[in-house]
Write a structure and sequence with these properties.
Blueprint: E1 2-10, E2 13-19, H1 29-38, E3 43-48, E4 58-63, E5 68-69, H2 73-85, E6 92-96, E7 99-105, E8 111-114, E9 140-141, E10 149-150, E11 153-156, E12 160-165, H3 174-182, E13 192-200, E14 203-210, E15 214-216, H4 220-232, E16 239-244, E17 247-253, E18 259-263, E19 266-274
Length: 283
């Protein structure tokens, strides 16, 4: 028996949506890797039956290497698009390991997801040692007197993020330095690594090495982390347009300390997965 899936993208962030509500199968790390071998993705969004009456589903998120993520804003927007296409009224709510996520239809076919509150304390990110001010931590690569990159801002938006402020995101080989920084000892749970160039008081350009996925055309939680960190360091205001290789996201860090992320989604194709990938099933 085959199990249907949908391939989508959120401004280039490659997403597979797998709806297992009402089905007995489950996804393990091995299953996620097997699915990725058949249908490559940045994130796999798996919907299970809701655990709370005020939500439509319980959602788990896997990276291509089988590791699990707490948050994926672009993937959540893709899930929202599918739910709205199925007739679900806007807004709707899904539960993830990051908490309850509110998804709403915006203008011009765009979708907004409430990513929740940012976390800046060193032990919430988490970091391996205390830092009183996480707007700029002591971390650098290259010669001590002339580092290539240094003093990133750090934040947790469901996942750990480090943002290096640069004048040109293309001036660095992020594919080469990303893995080293992702796995740096300062990040006990690894981290998403971003290069950010502030281009005005309400715009910035971003390039991301994503934990468990690698160099990616878009990362929603990284865009949120860069936006709130830019505002926190007074580089921008609280609402910015973030340009990634795959497209633009609008990030609004509200006065209520919520992060709203708005952007486009795109259907690519659907397909079928062999159920042997999911064995053994659980009831």
């Amino acid at each position: 028996m085959s199990i249907p899936y949908v391939k989508m993208n959120g401004i280039g962030n490659e997403i597979v949506v797998l709806d297992l509500r009402g089905r007995p199968e489950t996804v393990t790390a091995d299953a996620a890797r097997a699915i990725g071998a058949q249908e490559p993705f940045d994130q796999l969004m798996v919907l299970y039956a809701p655990r709370r009456p005020d939500t439509l589903a319980y959602m788990r998120i896997f990276n291509i290497d089988g590791s699990e993520s707490f948050a994926c804003g672009n993937g959540t927007r893709c899930v929202g698009t599918r739910l709205f296409q199925a007739g679900v009224p806007s807004p709707c709510f899904v539960e993830s390991r990051a908490g309850i996520l509110r998804i709403a239809q915006a203008d011009n076919g765009l979708v907004t997801v409430d990513m929740g509150e940012p976390h800046f304390a060193w032990n919430d990110i988490p970091l391996a040692e205390p830092f009183a001010d996480t707007r700029a931590i002591e971390l650098q690569i290259g010669p001590i007197d002339a580092p290539i990159l240094h003093s990133p801002s750090v934040a947790n938006i469901g996942n750990p993020h480090a943002i290096f402020w640069v004048d040109d995101v293309e001036a660095y080989d992020l594919a080469a330095i990303g893995p080293m920084l992702e796995n740096h000892p300062i990040f006990p749970e690894r981290a998403n690594i971003s290069l950010a160039h502030v281009t005005s008081s309400d715009t910035l350009t971003l390039k991301v090495w994503e934990r468990g996925a690698g160099l990616t055309r878009a990362c929603g939680s990284a865009a949120c982390a860069a936006a709130v960190s830019a505002a926190r360091t007074r580089r921008t205001g609280r609402k910015v347009r973030v340009t990634l290789p795959g497209g633009d996201l609008v990030i609004d860090w509200t006065a209520e300390n919520r992060i709203l992320m708005t952007g486009a989604t795109e259907f690519e194709h659907d397909g079928l997965l062999p159920d042997v990938i999911f064995e053994p099933a659980v009831a």
